[in-house]
Structures are given as C-alpha cells and as structure tokens.
C-alpha cells in the first residue's frame, strides 16, 4: 500500500487548474504544498501518475528511508532526511528497483540551502515538477507539464524503449544502434566543424554520438557542441532560442523535448548560451528545508 502524508495539494488545499491533454487548456500548476513547521530537511513527494511507483533515494552516503517505498496513484509522502549531498530520487514502475523510469537530482546542504535540478539528458519516462520552499529569487518551480501518455505517444520515432523515451545520446551510446541513420545524422556538420571552425580541428573523426553526448572531442567545447545539436554551426554564438532547431540536421530528441517541456536540458551543455535549467539554489527561512517533487504533475 502507498504511504500518504494526508495533506492536500497546494497551500490551503488548492488544486491545480487546467485539463491535461485537451487542446487549448494547458495544465496550470497550483500553489506548492507547504508543510507545517518542521525541523530538519523534508522532501514532499506526490505521485500524480495513474499507476503506482516505487521510490529509491540515494546520495551522500545515505539511502532515503523508508527505502523502496510504494506510492500509489495520487498518494503523497513526506521524507525526513539530514544533510543529503549529491542525491538522486529514482522512480521505478514494476516493483522495488525494478524497471527504472525517471529520477530527480538534488542536494540538501547545511544551514537550510536546497539545490535541485530537473533535466532529461538520458531520456524521459515521467514528467516531473520540482519546487523548493524558501526565500530568494532562485526558489523556482521547474517542471515538465506534458502528460505521461503524451510523452509515450509523441516520443520521436525509434527512441521509445519500454516506458521511456531515450535521449539521442542514450540511444546512440548503445552499440546495437551505431549503424542507424539517427546516429549519423550530424556526421557532415561535424566534418565541416573540424575543417572550417576555429577550435574544432581536433574533432576530425568524431561521431554524431559524441555530439549528442558532448563527450570526447566535444567534452570541452560547450558552445560548439550545443550549436551542432541545435543545427546552428554557422552561428554558434547565437543565443536566440527561436533560432534553435530551425536548421537541419539537428538533434531531433532535443528539439522535441524543448517543444513539450520548455526550459529543460536534453543533452549535456544544453544550457550553453541560454539560462535554461541551471541548478537552482533555494535558501530557507531557517535551518530547515522543504523540496516538493511531483511525478506526473499533469497526469
């Protein structure tokens, strides 16, 4: 059975408005849940999906307890935890640590500081929302407000693997896919980069997978790697997001993800020349913190 904190959605029990999945009525999240006064660090988790999830949190030498918690559809749970650096809260769909589906990244620092990030560099299985409770301009709500059904139905052709839409980098990192056209889509612009762009000469012979993952020759080339993913090699310093993914070829997964989940990272260095999806740092009003994590906020 799932565990429930017994609290309503949002401050004062407000429900999020909007009807998920209906054209012209985008999902609008309601006010974030605010826990009663508490000591220490609190992670409030809600399962907004239509199916149960099993949660496993690990980081900073500690495992979030209770481990392998089953959270049924609509259930909520409050975890209490001490300082918890470099942590992941992972969700599984078929039992305790069975069939990984997605995860959130966070750090709980001493003195009431919460750092958190939401991105889909490896792929996306569950839309999520993260928001910390505290003071300052960086206690921001970050989220993907597509429905889980929309993610599965609209995943770019060939990238759907079970209940996850694989990122371009993850798909092409699998040697079984190395010969697929998708994993050679950027070969020509990579060759052009190596022969005609300053600072790119050592990328000769690099693969499309290296660009999708921004590794090897592109591990220290944030601007050029982002430009190649966005189809903008001719204007790598262009910071206008309306110019991204207009030219061909480009990273089809990244273009799709930015359309359905604006502002979230789809590949390493996706924040180059944009303010998107940096780590957010929220200072609490005291030495206690609260971070809300919602899986499937729009259903």
Task: Give your account of this protein's structure.
There is one protein chain. The protein is of the alpha+beta class. It has six helices and 15 strands. Strands 2, 3, 4, 6, 7, 8 and 14 form a seven-stranded antiparallel β-sheet that branches. A five-stranded mixed β-sheet has the order 5-1-15-10-11, with no helix packed on it. β10 and β11 (142-143) form a beta hairpin.
Give a short synopsis of this structure:
This protein is α+β, with helices and mostly antiparallel strands and 299 residues long. The chain contains six helices and 15 strands.
**Major β-sheet, in short?**
7 strands, antiparallel
Number of strands: 15
| Coarse shape | globular
How much strand content do the residues show? 25-35%
Helix content: 10-25%
Order of helices and strands: EEEEEEEEEEEHEEHHHHHEE
Distance between the termini: 20 Å
Structural class: alpha+beta
Poorly predicted runs: 1-23
Total count of helical runs of at least 4 residues: 6
CA-atom Rg in angstroms:
20 Å
- Integer average pLDDT: 88
């Amino acid at each position: 059975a799932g565990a429930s904190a017994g609290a309503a959605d949002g401050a004062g029990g407000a429900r999020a408005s909007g009807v998920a999945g209906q054209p012209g009525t985008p999902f609008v999240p309601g006010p974030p849940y605010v826990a009663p006064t508490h000591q220490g660090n609190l992670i409030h988790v809600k399962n907004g999906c239509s199916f149960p999830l099993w949660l496993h949190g690990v980081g900073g030498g500690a495992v979030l307890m209770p481990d392998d918690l089953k959270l049924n559809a609509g259930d909520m749970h409050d975890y209490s935890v001490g300082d918890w650096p470099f942590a992941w809260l992972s969700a599984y769909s078929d039992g305790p640590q069975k069939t990984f589906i997605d995860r959130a990244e966070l750090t709980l620092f001493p003195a009431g500081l919460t750092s958190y990030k939401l991105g889909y560099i490896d792929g996306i299985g569950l839309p999520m929302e993260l928001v910390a409770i505290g003071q300052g301009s960086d206690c921001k709500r970050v989220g993907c407000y597509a429905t889980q059904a929309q993610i599965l139905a609209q995943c770019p052709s060939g990238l759907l693997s079970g209940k996850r839409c694989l990122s371009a980098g993850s798909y092409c990192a699998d040697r079984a896919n190395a010969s697929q056209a998708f994993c050679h889509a950027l070969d020509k612009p990579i060759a052009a980069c190596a022969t005609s762009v300053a600072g790119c000469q050592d990328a000769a012979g690099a693969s499309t997978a290296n660009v999708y993952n921004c590794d090897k020759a592109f591990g220290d080339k944030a601007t050029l790697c982002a430009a190649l993913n966005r189809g903008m090699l001719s204007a790598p310093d262009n910071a206008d997001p309306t110019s991204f993914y207009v030219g061909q070829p480009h990273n089809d997964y990244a273009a799709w993800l930015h359309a359905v989940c604006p502002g979230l990272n789809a590949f390493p260095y996706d924040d180059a020349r944009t303010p998107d999806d940096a780590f957010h740092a929220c200072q609490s009003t005291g030495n206690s913190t609260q971070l809300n994590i919602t899986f499937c906020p729009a259903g």
